[in-house]
Amino acid sequence: MRYRLFGRTGLRVSELVLGTMTFDDPGQARRTIDAFADAGGNFLDTASAYGESESLLGEAVEQRDRFVIGTKYTLSRDAADPNGAGSQRKNLRLSLERSLRRLRTDYIDVYWVHIWDRHTPLEETMRALDDAVRAGRILHVGISDAPAWVVSRANTLAEWRGWTPFAGLQVPYSLVRRDVERELLPMAEALGLSVTAWAPLAAGLLSGGASRRVDPAKLSPRERAAADAVRSAAAEVGATPSQVALAWIRQKSPAVLPLVGARNAEQIAENVVSITLPDEVMRRLDDAAEFERGFPADFIAECETSPFVFGDTATKLDAGR
User: Fold this and answer.
1) Pairing of strands 3-5, 12-14
2) Do 166 and 276 fall into the same domain?
3) Which of 184, 215, 228, 316 pairs with 209 at a CA distance of 20 to 30 A?
4) Residue 316: which domain range?
């Protein structure tokens, strides 16, 4: 396994992230984490709202400092408490203390805002996160499931005020679900954020596993086309459908770190195999699940080569600096 820098930090993380949301057995959790570590993986993902996941992870990890552990807050700790959820300072502090106890550690490598809380000012969230960084309780911060403008504004506030900016973005991304290519992924690339992509196998659809749980008749034409294209590509390149689906997402952007869930060492062994797809295979996969970025991205792309917009040199300008 190879490694990436996490956002614009010096933190080294594995190119594959192990999601621990489905952990439910201490022994199995330890064996899965050991298999991931043996393959070179070091980035583990959990959340305060994932049931017993944090506690199982804390029990299973024996060499804590060898791992990069990320967890999240914002989701409800107590449904009856008005302040038991949200991204405000009070819930952040109480959620963080609970996560530290469950994980059996005195610091968290990456602390994520789990979802945008439109009722809490961004200034409050970013300052509270920065305070936790300065206190040594967390090292880096990220945000999950938020609009691009929210992330951009939050990092602008952090830049202006000397606070810790978001280094990572966590979003759903797969061949079936490509919405992030519209605004979120270009923003992350421009701001230097790492993108941990959840559901990269579309709940098993792109690995072949969904057929056991989902009635094929209920799949949309797009979902069927994507699954068929992945299986065809896998047969062509001599890989498994999971390996093809993960390779596609990796090759779409160097910022992306697929986040995969695994219950056993066999699934780890399959998913850590990194392959490179030929350009033609990438094009066929793209075409199988067509995606339009929409306005303004498509309109701007058309205008970039228009002499009417950018003059006679519009088609002579090389990209980059």
Assistant:
1) antiparallel
2) yes
3) 184
4) 291-321
Alpha-carbon gap, residue 144 to 17, rounded angstroms: 15
Mean pLDDT score, 59-75: 96
Catalytic amino acids? 50
Nearest CA-CA partner of 113 in 138, 84, 86, 139: 86
The per-residue pLDDT for range 274-318, each reduced to its tens digit, is 899 999 999 999 999 988 999 999 999 899 888 999 898 888 877
User: Are residues 138 and 256 both part of a single domain?
Assistant: yes
Contacts of 220 (CB under 8 A, 6+ apart): none
Please tell me whether residue 227 adopts helix, strand or coil conformation.
helix
Q: Residue 298 CB: number of other CB atoms within 10 A?
A: 12
160, 68: one domain: yes
> What confidence tens digit (pLDDT) does each residue in 179-197 have?
999 999 999 999 999 999 9
Q: How far apart are CA 28 and CA 201, in angstroms?
A: 22
Return the structure tokens found at 237.
Answer: 């390149």
Q: Give tens-digit pLDDT for 144-159.
A: 999 999 999 999 999 9
How many residues belong to the chain? 321
The tokens of 170 are what? 């966590």
The reported pTM is: 0.93
Amino acid (one-letter) located at 134: R
State the burial class of residue 318 (Cβ atoms within 10 Å of its Cβ: 0-12, 13-18, 19+). Answer: exposed
User: At 80, which CATH number?
Assistant: 3.20.20.100
pLDDT at residue number 211: 46
Q: What is the DSSP string of 169-228?
A: EEEE--SS--GGGTTHHHHHHHHT-EEEEE-TTTTTTTTTGGGGTS-GGGS-HHHHHHHH
Q: What is the C-alpha to C-alpha distance for residues 265 and 247, in angstroms, rounded to an integer?
A: 20
Per-residue tokens: 318? 């090389």
How many domains does the chain contain in total?
2
Burial 226-239 (b: 16+ CB within 10 A, else e): bbebbbbbbeeeeb
Instruction: State the number of CA atoms in the 13 A half-sphere of 140 facing the CB.
Output: 21
pLDDT tens column, 306-320: 899 989 888 887 765
